[in-house]
Amino acid sequence: MASSLTWDRDHLEIRKPGHTQSVTTAIASLNRSTQLPSAHITVVHGSDGGGTTWIWSRFFSEAGTDWKARVGAGTSFVWPVGVAAEGNEGVANLVQGTPNSIAYATVMAQ
To answer: In what order do the strands lie in the sheet with 83-85?
Structure first.
């Protein structure tokens, strides 16, 4: 499976509670060279609150719809979807062990 997909602000359905969280035709059309499964997507997010969580929550808040009013932006809030793991290693381990999952993590160069 692809480690990197193309997304845009108009196709962030997986962040919305109540969405079926399956890959939509629109997302597939943005990634024509990658065969995507028609399967439930598990959203994995950090539980420890930090800069990366703040960046993602701010992005979602600015992307429109109802995220800003219902969830807000910050380092600590209740995610409307998904499962939580502590730290980048915890997030990476949970994604590795969860089929069809998606997450964000900070990558540190050495």
So the answer is: 83-85, 42-46, 101-103
Residue 51's Cβ-count burial label (10 Å; 0-12, 13-18, 19+) is exposed
Virtual CA dihedral for 75, 78, 83, 87, nearest 10 degrees? 20
Q: Determine the 3-state secondary structure of 96 from DSSP.
A: helix
Encode pLDDT of 40-59 as tens digits. Answer: 788 899 888 888 888 888 88
Measured in whole angstroms, the distance separating CA 28 from the mean position of its chain's CA atoms is 16
Q: Is 62 helix (H, G, I), strand (E, B) or coil?
A: helix
Domain that residue 36 falls in? 13-48+81-103
Residue 4 falls inside a structural domain? no
